[in-house]
Specification:
Blueprint: E1 3-5, E2 24-25, E3 37-42, E4 46-54, E5 57-60, E6 79-83, E7 92-100, H1 113-116, E8 121-125, E9 144-148, E10 158-163, E11 173-175, E12 187-192, E13 195-208, E14 211-218, H2 222-230
Parallel strand pairs: 1-13
Antiparallel strand pairs: 2-10, 3-4, 3-6, 4-5, 5-8, 6-7, 7-8, 9-10, 9-12, 11-14, 12-13, 13-14
């Protein structure tokens, strides 16, 4: 699932100053170190991308937990996470038993930037998965990478490294990353000395006169707050 927004953005898009990396299909050994990325399958509503950030916690986009037609929240027991899904093989599978969204998030088919900036969901799995989660990282002024599924790559994840950020003001990251329907919830990554870290989550695709831009919600302090709410009796 990915909202394709025909946004007439108010900022001027500057010319590209660096070359984006070509998207690479992650087959076989190429997937090494990225097994924490997988598909979030929502029964009756399609799929998104997600990433394991703790043995039993998955990050994805909040709007993936809603039916686009009814605009109602799906029940948690209809959501599953399949890590490193590729052509029928996978590294691990978990059923979602609880989910929380930022308090600022409100589902709408045509969200404004403040809603897009909170388009993050944290999913708790029924049991920990036996694969290495991907760490969270602080957002830096550095190239980005995205691992995602989507239309045309529903059964093989794709890595694009690097892609660039447009330095426009506002709460949402605007990136040149190659995304497609199904890429919602994909982790936006930045490299550190120990490998990739997650800094944001893909939310939508913006169509502008200058081309298409991936919109992403920075993690900021959302994850810590959602973790705390998962421990309360009324997480939803």
């Amino acid at each position: 699932m990915l909202r394709r927004l025909a946004l007439m953005l108010t900022f001027a898009l500057g010319p590209a100053v660096a070359q984006d990396g070509a998207p690479t299909r992650l087959l076989g050994a190429k997937l090494a170190g990225l097994e924490a990325v997988g598909r979030v399958n929502v029964q009756g509503a399609g799929f998104c991308t997600g990433v394991l950030v703790a043995p039993d916690l998955v990050l994805t986009a909040a709007h993936c937990l809603y039916h686009s037609r009814s605009q109602r929240r799906v029940s948690d027991d209809r959501v599953h996470f399949v890590a490193a899904w590729r052509k029928g093989a996978y590294a691990a599978h978990g059923r979602v038993v609880r989910s929380v969204l930022p308090e600022a998030y409100r589902y709408t088919p045509t969200p404004v930037s403040t809603v897009l900036a909170a388009d993050i969901a944290l999913l708790r799995l029924e049991a920990p998965l036996q694969i290495a989660p991907m760490p969270l990282a602080d957002l830096r002024d550095a190239p980005f990478a995205v691992v995602s599924y989507g239309r045309g790559r529903a059964h093989v994840p794709t890595l694009q490294d690097p892609c660039r950020r447009h330095a426009a003001p506002g709460p949402v990251l605007r990136l040149t990353c190659d995304i497609a329907p199904g890429s919602s919830g994909a982790p936006v990554l930045q490299r550190a000395s120990e490998g990739y870290g997650v800094v944001a989550v893909i939310s939508a695709l913006a169509k502008t006169p200058d081309g298409a831009w991936a919109l992403a919600a920075p993690l900021s302090d959302h994850v810590d707050k959602m973790r705390a709410r998962l421990e309360t009796p009324q997480a939803r």
